Amino acid sequence: MNKQRGPSDLVKIILFILTLGGWYLYYRWQQHQLDKAELISLLPEIEKATAEFGPHFSGNKYFAHYDYLQLRFRHALLLSKIPKKYNNYNLSDQEFKTIDRFAGLHQGITKYRSDYNREFTNSEIVGYKSFFSKLEKYPLSLEQMHAVVSEEDNSLVIAGAGTGKTTTISAKIAYLLDKKLARPQELLVISFTNAAVEEMFERTLRFCGKDSGVEQATFRTFNSFGNQVVRYCNPHPKQIAFEGKDYKVKAFLQQSFDSLFKTDEDFQSKAISFLAFFNRPVKDQFEFNSAAEFKNHQQSQRCISLSGVEVKSMEELQIANFLYLHQVDFEYESRFPLEREDRNPDFGNYAPDFYLPGYDIYHEHYGIDRNGDVPNWFSAKPPFKTAREYYHHGMAWKQHIHEKYGTRLIKTYSYQSSDGSMLLSLKKQLSALGVMLRKRHPDEIIARLKKTENFEGFIGLIYTFLNLMKSSGMMPGGLRIEGMEQRFYVFLDVFTPLFNRYEQKLKDTSCIDFNDMVNHAASYIKNGKYPKAYKYILVDEFQDMSQGRYAMLDALKKANPSAKLYAVGDDWQSVYRFNGSDVSIISRFSDYFGVTAHNQILQTYRFNTEILQVSSTFIQKNPAQLRKKLSSPFDADIPAFGLIPVDLGRMKKAEIDLYLFDRINQILSGIARNAPNSCVFLIGR
Predict the structure, then answer these.
(1) b/e map of 464-492 (b: 16 or more CB within 10 Å)?
(2) What is the domain range of residue 490?
(3) DSSP single-letter state for residue 588
(4) Is the same domain home to 234 and 256?
(5) Core-most of 30, 327, 445, 529, by most CB within 10 Å?
(6) What was the pLDDT predicted at 343?
(7) Up-side HSE of residue 488: CA atoms within 13 Å toward CB?
(8) Where do the UvrD-like helicase ATP-binding domain residues begin and end (predicted)?
(9) Do 161 and 302 fall into the same domain?
(10) Lowest-confidence region among 79-83, 202-206, 291-295, 584-588
(11) Distance CA 282, CA 316 (A)
């Protein structure tokens, strides 16, 4: 039998636990006293650190995020020594207030900075109102003054068309120099064109005066600044290819295309494939929402085949070009010789899509998907309840006619165009019926291609794509990703050999282009080879920023951590997309650069309220554009827009030119009668 544990053993256990607990409590108390003593010993250091906030809340300067980061860095060790529950240390009121003030400043810095900067901005505007009123004939607006005195690490000023972007940047420079926030040589001012840079310099000089030393500031285009960096860092810099002339680059690309087309059969085949079948995005009938939308598309995107015949859709254009390239003569929508008793009032005169007179073969291209459905905007006629029923009835009637007359009919479908099998199906059917498919001579094809309206645009497309790709630091091989449209892959097949020739030309002549120069400059700055320091980087027309230019700015910012970036632009006015600009850099500015003060200048003096309302509504249909509401002090006394409808129908080009000339002449005559002293600006696309 086990011996039972007596009361004395239980007492011993309890006493042991109590003793252990008491010892632990004593240890905690003792440690608490030591921690308290250490915390109290920090009070002088805490008071000193708290005092460092004083100059930033003095009312004399803006409290920027970078300023706080510097404080935070200096205070990091001290903050780590302050217990989270410092209110549990039985401190005196004064001791607690000292610690709580310091900790509270760091914990609530976002609100404290925001409140202080709001008050400072308002006060600064009042103090500088007289200064700003004397810069121009008209004083700066309140929006402009808010934008000018903002001194955050990064400032983005969204300024609509005609609101005074250049004035705002020049006023900012005048403010910086007057307040002695920077010396002229510490300012870097960048825009995109020589004309814009010259205008900005002249206006800034007028604002600041000749004695300000503003001539020592750096005013450059992006390309010019990139060139400055490259020449500083490389004693033997390469020359700019093609003398930096766009038209010379395009001429070289044209010559390269001609040479490859004549000497490289693979390139020739791919070039013909793109230009004949993929030169424009294929939009099938199922993508339209209405018959009117389809008709408008037809009129704006005329489908003229290589043989000169105009057809009604991109799918039919591909068929017509296939027949031309294989020397198969055809007639488009010529009437079928129906006997009187076979005529059907539902379909009127029967005109098959294509007729091959050399082989007495007809070809119908049907607008149905793989399930036999027709586009939603197709209409029906009684007694048919649906457009599908009506369309399929027509298909069956046409089939019956060809069977009755013993004529040969081949068929293709819209869904075959979508899945890329249409031309292969056409080729098989033609071959099965004995149609001779003979490729035309390349010289004949290239001569015909160059006469088409889209060929000049094709070389422009190559040039634009080259700039977009190089400005983003990419190569053709990195663009072949799954899920892209077939048209893009065909384009890359043509673009890549031309790109390789372009790059080889740069190598052979020991030259670089502007994209290379900006990329090299970014690399030099990033690697610390460009030592010049800037306190302010001011960028005009920021909406035209490219990834390559962003990389250079980013490198500058990282090389000068305390430098402030001041950007002015309007995403609605981005016009350099062809040269690699990426509007997301302005629309997602904070993601790219960090903490940012956003200001808007929304009163425009360029046009009246009616033009403003129409243009703003149109632009903001693009979800990628920033939302903003511009205003104008000018009301429209008379209608600001006159939309003149024209119906070009199936006119030939010469007829269209004459018709449009007559319409324009009528409009000008009306203007001359009503406002004889008017100045008229004609613009076309």
Answers:
(1) ebbbbbbbbeeebeebeeeeeeeebebbb
(2) 242-262+454-509
(3) T
(4) no
(5) 445
(6) 85
(7) 10
(8) 138-608
(9) no
(10) 291-295
(11) 11
Residues 6+ apart with CB under 8 A from 304: 310, 311, 317, 452, 453
The answer to whether 431 and 441 have CB atoms below 8 angstroms apart is: no
Q: Tell me which residue of 239, 181, 367, 201 sits closest to 291, measured CA to CA.
A: 367
Together in a domain, 460 and 527: no
Distances in Å between the Cα of 235 and the Cα atoms of 34, 221, 230, 231, 232 are 64, 21, 9, 6, 7
- Cα 139 to Cα 130: distance, rounded to the nearest angstrom: 9
Among 493, 509, 525, residue at a domain's last position? 509
CB neighbourhood size of 361 (10 A): 21
Of 285, 194, 279, 323, nearest to 452 (Cα)?
A: 279
By C-alpha distance, which of 270, 284, 442 is closest to 370? 284
**Number of domain units in the chain:** 5
Is 647 exposed, middle or buried (CB count within 10 Å of its CB: 0-12, 13-18, 19+)? exposed
Torsion angle of C-alpha atoms 233, 235, 241, 244, degrees rounded to 10? 70
pLDDT (0 to 100) of residue 578: 42
Instruction: Judge if 564 and 599 occupy the same domain.
Output: yes
Nearest CA to 290 out of 377, 188, 201 is that of 377
Q: How is residue 443 written in tokens?
A: 């010289």
End-to-end CA distance of the chain: 110
Output the known binding site for ATP: 159-166
534 and 435 belong to one structural domain: no
Question: Are residue 484 and residue 525 in the same domain, yes or no?
Answer: no
Indicate whether 105 pLDDT > 70: yes
Residue in 611, 267, 320 with CA at minimum distance from that of residue 452 = 320
SS3 content of the chain, % helix, strand, coil (to 5): 60, 10, 35
More confident residue, 298 or 257: 257
> 438-447: per-residue pLDDT in tens?
999 888 988 8
Question: Residue 170 and residue 200: Cα distance in Å, rounded?
Answer: 7
Q: Do residues 237 and 231 make contact, with C-beta atoms less than 8 angstroms apart? A: yes
Residue type, 407: T
